[in-house]
Write a structure and sequence with these properties.
single chain, three-stranded antiparallel beta sheet, alpha+beta, about 280 residues
Length: about 280
């Protein structure tokens, strides 16, 4: 019976992911739709795994014997998920521990770590209480007003706690990257994150100035940690950069949906747990 549950969950996860396609919706709807298709299949698989582990490898369910093989596969999946979480946490902690080795400076009223990089770069690094990092190259490239616009963008990431939430989303992505459309959905979430930070920053600085700063920084490439990091130039390929510029120029509102609306859709991923009372040792 466990094998049937696993196959049903796996089939459902794959089908749901295949159904996703980018649509021309408003930004709130894009957030809602992207998060659902990104989160529901992995959560369905995790809840199925928890149900199987909770029922154990012995006994029957609806008159069918449980399979030791399916139980073993579930243990491997949960073990891989746990290992991925530990590895993500380790990489994030290592990046965070290296920050105090860099000098600090007060920029526009914020404390920032100054990285000895010649390329222009700025980001929030950490988890819930992330830290602002800026490269020497950015300080030498931008004037004071442009720098303030960039810092406003990074403050927006701190306001939304993007480094914390995207740590968990990044874990889910790494854990189930083999599902269909994983990369496309992940890039869409990164784009929406940056669009939201752009919109928030545009409430306090000139959006045209922020757009100019974004174009200037996007001309350069830099390797940055993917764990616990939210950077201005993230997802700045040509098409996505154009969308961010247009959103700033048109002053489009980019607001994520209320969590209660998303929760109503994701609650169905708990369905496998309902099967546990039908298991008998």
């Amino acid at each position: 019976m466990h094998t049937i549950m696993i196959l049903m969950a796996l089939g459902g996860a794959i089908i749901i992911r295949w159904l996703w396609s980018p649509d021309l919706l408003n930004y709130t709807q894009r957030w809602q739709r992207t998060l659902f298709y990104f989160l529901f299949p992995p959560l369905l698989l995790l809840m199925t795994a928890i149900a199987v582990l909770g029922m154990g490898q012995h006994g029957k369910m609806l008159g069918l014997e449980n399979s030791h093989l399916s139980y073993g596969l579930t243990v491997l999946f949960v073990g891989f998920a746990f290992f991925t979480l530990l590895w993500q946490g380790y990489k994030g902690a290592r990046s965070r521990q290296n920050l105090p080795q860099n000098p600090q400076s007060t920029l526009s009223g914020d404390q920032a770590y100054i990285l000895p990089l010649t390329v222009p770069y700025s980001a929030q690094m950490g988890w819930w209480h992330s830290k602002l990092v800026i490269s020497e190259g950015l300080l030498s490239l931008l004037d004071q007003e442009q720098l303030e616009a960039v810092i406003a963008h990074e403050q927006a990431h701190l306001h939304y706690r993007d480094t914390f939430w995207f740590f968990w989303l990044g874990w889910i992505y790494q854990m189930t990257a083999w599902l269909p459309n994983s990369r496309q959905l992940w890039e869409e979430l990164l784009l929406l994150r940056e669009l939201r930070a752009d919109w928030k920053a545009a409430q306090t600085v000139d959006p045209i100035l922020l757009a100019e700063s974004l174009v200037t920084v996007a001309k350069f490439t830099v390797r940055y940690p993917e764990v616990g990091c939210a950077a201005l130039s993230c997802t700045a390929n040509k098409s996505r950069l154009e969308e961010r510029i247009e959103a700033l120029i048109n002053e489009e509102e980019v607001v994520s949906p209320p969590l209660v609306l998303l929760g109503r859709e994701l609650v169905w991923s708990l369905t496998p747990l309902i099967t546990m009372p039908w298991h008998h040792s």
